[in-house]
Amino acid sequence: MKFDLIVIGGGSAGHAAARTAASLGLSCALVEAPGPLGGLCILRGCMPSKVLLETSNRMREIHEAKRFGITVTAPKLNLGALRDRLEELTRDFREYRLHEMKSSGYELIRATASFTSPHELSLRNEDGQTSSVTAKAFVIATGSSPSIPKIPGLEETPFWTSDDVVKTPAVPSRIAIVGSGAIGLEIAHLFEGFGSNVTVIARGGSILSHHDPDLSQALERESEELGIRFLKNTSLRSVSHEKGTFHLTPEGEASSFTVDALLIATGREPATSRLGLEKLGIAMDGKRILIDDRATTSLSHVFAAGDCASPVPVVHLAVIQGEAAARNAERIIRDGHSEISADWSHATAMSGLFTSPQAVEIGMTEKPAAEKGFQTISGIIHYNDQGKGMIAGSRHGFVKIVADAATRRIIGASGVGPVVLETAHVVQLAITSGLTLEEYVAVPHYHPTLAEAWASAAQDAIDRHPQPSA
Is 251 in contact with 239 (CB distance < 8 Å)? Predict the structure, then answer.
């Protein structure tokens, strides 16, 4: 079989690439390995985890009702009913994606793919039969899988990863989470809301070490006040499991302790090891495929999108990369005689945590901006000093806006607080549109709302750093 474009991987990035290619009139096939269709987001990531977090958050709100003048009895989780709701919603999400995949104009091939040459793939179906396909261009969108550290004794234990948690196996009385990144923190808040005693083991001196330090510190304080315990500068020397109990022995000063469940949340790694990329000589950073802002790899006819390549592995960016990859593949296939190239922007990438409270980071905050040579100015407002934030009961939350000192254009933002990830799209629009601080604060924000905190942070930056008089 011959195609203009073949996409490898049926998650959000792959579907976006194949759908876009078909809409451009290319003959396109999407190759996805046997098993449930839908990709990480629908099957084991974004959607099922948020179903669980919605229930956890509502339980927490009931527990905290006294703060708002409400007397209630303690809530009790019906795990069976939650599993039923999770299965129903996941089935709906999966069936909708399957309908999209079957009606988007591309051919869906169920097989495991690997490169045999720069323009040919070997396919192995569920029965072990092999065949080959060729294409003028390719998009690799194979996603990621949990990264498991080498800890003595770990392999012999029934530890969980995030893939297991979304199946709601149980709600343990005590759980330890190895890893303090986005996945680890979200699951920590999930089980804290369910009533578990949660300990988070962080290898470094801070949680969320790749995020804005103000964000990390605020979320750590919020988490500790909810009862989550952090063991920082800590790694596990050994793990054992006996009669339903995990025995954890940390390095350093922390004492050994026992828990009923152990979650490994030390990140995810690109799923690229079985693609035969070594035959192509594609430039890699470990297992991650290196791409430019057009989603192009070091081979001009091979593109990549989503978690297997993105420096910011989030779904909305994976979709943008997939669409850009397909549009740029069309230019290659049609000898460059089409519209201008499409790109994706790391500078406006948005990442968020569905913790309690939520956290968000957009674009460049102070440290990465300084590393790129920017002189920055910033403004901040704390929710416990902002009308609607005070009403919502925020303790340590804030929002911060960062601007380029030379142009006064907003280049980044971060925040922790009630539904801050939901309200952050107002400042994301400002960053994407290249607005200055002054242009942004001129946009009316309804009062009293949580969203107006972003405008207040921009005004704080203006007040701290007024424009020089002409």
Answer: no
Residue 290 to residue 431: CA distance in whole angstroms:
25
- On the CB side of 439, CA atoms within 13 Å amount to 14
pLDDT per residue over 446-470, tens digit each?
999 999 999 999 999 999 999 877 5
Boundary-marking domain end, from 266, 297, 323: 266
Query: Closest Cα partner for 186 from 41, 53, 296, 349?
Result: 53
Q: What is the pTM of this model?
A: 0.92
Give pLDDT tens digits for 82-124. 999 999 999 998 898 888 988 999 999 999 999 999 999 999 9
CB-based contacts of 132, cutoff 8 Å, min separation 6: 116, 120, 121, 122, 123
User: 18 and 125 share a domain?
Assistant: yes
Residues 162 and 229 in one domain: yes
Question: What type of residue is 23?
Answer: S
In terms of Cα–Cα distance, which of 294, 288, 293, 282 is closest to 325?
Answer: 294
Which of left, alpha, beta for 168 (phi over 0: left; psi -120 to 50: alpha)? left
